[in-house]
Structure prediction request, 238 residues.
Amino acid sequence: MLNDSLLPKHVQLRAALLKTIEDELQPGAMIPSERDLTTRYDVSRATVRAAISSLVNEGRLTTVPGRGTVVTRPRVESNLHLASFTQDMRQRGHRPSTEVLSAAVVEAGEATAKALGISPGDSVWEIERLRLADDEPMAHEVSWYPEAIVPALGDEDLSGSIYAILEATYGVVITDAHQTTWAEQAGHTYAHLLEVGETAPVMVFDRVGSSHEGPVEQTISRYRGDRYQLSMSLQRGP
Ligand code: GLP
Prediction:
């Protein structure tokens, strides 16, 4: 029951919910339904909705389409440096795993050919993978590697680190990358794969990774905006 009559009911309910979130609920857990909360705290639905929406706005709760409202989980934070997905997740204490969706030799399109310094139509391995952290979808990736550099890449077990395969099998170390980042809505295809709503934000990374000898990979990764964040140290420019 709420009893501090000086404060509006929804403010009191917000405080009570926050205490429940902190004391009793795990990140990702569903909060009680609106109906339960109206009964439990003897307040109107409007009060419940106001309290929930203020916690959603503060980032403490997340609305999951089709499921309800859950306690927000902290994002996986990544420092900006050149790492593979496998390293990145391990460094942050998460267990990486991968579902290989497809692996085939295709003809390079214009943009990929330009990025990789080859001719359009040259053969490239196209590898599509879903990357998971602690068994939950984190990113979707599609990568292209020139077949001339990694002729039998598709014969390898691609459910681990491709960067590790490049090093161990081909002696190719990705030492540099140029990466462009932007935000998008997940849209139908990626919403399904990443298990988010169609309007959920995703962070897109278009990386061209190079060894000392030149470009080796282009990868377009789509990371879940609710699960991933980047931090970077910046120096004042001229
Ligand atoms: C990151 C990069 C990709 C790269 C991948 C390699 O996700 N954004 O460009 O292809 O790591 O990861 P792994 O070596 O784990 O396959």
In short: The chain has two domains: 9-71, 76-231. The pocket of GLP is lined by residues 84-86, 141, 143, 161-164, 205, 207, 209, 217, 219, 221 (CB under 6 Å). The beta strands are 61-64, 68-71, 76-79, 96-107, 123-133, 136-146, 176-185, 201-211, 214-224, 228-231. DSSP finds seven helices and ten strands in the chain.
